[in-house]
Amino acid sequence: MAVDKPAGVILAGGRSRRMGVERKALQTLGGRSLLAHVCDRIQTQVNPLLLSCDAVTDDFDEFDLELVPDLLPGFRGPLTGLYSALQYLADIRQDNGLLLCPCDAPFIPEALAQTLCDANQDEVKPVVVVSWQGVLQPTFSLWQNHHLPAVKAAMVNKGIGGLKRVLLTLPHEVVEWPVSDPSPFFNVNTPAELEKAASWLDRMNA
Fold first, then answer.
1. Sign of the C-alpha dihedral, residues 120, 122, 126, 130?
2. Which residue, 10, 39, 47, 105, is most buried by CB atoms nearer than 10 A?
3. 75 pLDDT exceeds 70?
4. Of 46, 41, 185, which Cα lies nearest the Cα of 117?
5. Within 13 A of 139's CA, how many CA atoms are on the CB side?
6. Can you list the domains of the chain with their CATH numbers?
7. Residue pLDDT, tens place only, 52-61
8. Is the pLDDT assigned to residue 21 strictly greater than 80?
9. Cβ atoms within 10 Å of 109's Cβ, excluding its own
10. In degrees to the nearest 10, what's the CA dihedral of 128, 130, 131, 132?
């Protein structure tokens, strides 16, 4: 079933401690930044495409994305990015859903948004989340504006920063993604994983 495109937000506000750099999103893979790879795969699936970051910065100006700084300070986790993006959409009165994805997943499926939207036809519109080999992947998920109060309460009242803890308190639909190699949900968190991603990319482009 055809639906209006959801908005999308790329999470780029983490500390990147395991990578040992300030902006993991700008690490180079195959001659281009991780963020550029993610943008290539997600840009046509959503409208608009937002970039979640911890604070206002010019580090990402070259990507010409709408920057959504965290509404709460202190690197509280990916839930802060979701909360800030949902609030942004509520403020501009856009309510077609919000596709969440991280800045360090260069192999994101090009059918991710449509697949999650197709699984979200219930009148209540629950959260839709990817599962990969039986493991939930909450940073690859589709949320709605009506989830904003629950997300805000978790952040502001309970101090929760993890997506999964909030996800499991809400009605949600799980989409088990077909197995493929490399994993389309592979996250690059360390220099070793960046090398692994580069090897996969070389093989895919061979």
1. negative
2. 10
3. no
4. 46
5. 22
6. 7-205 (3.90.550.10)
7. 998 899 999 9
8. no
9. 20
10. 170
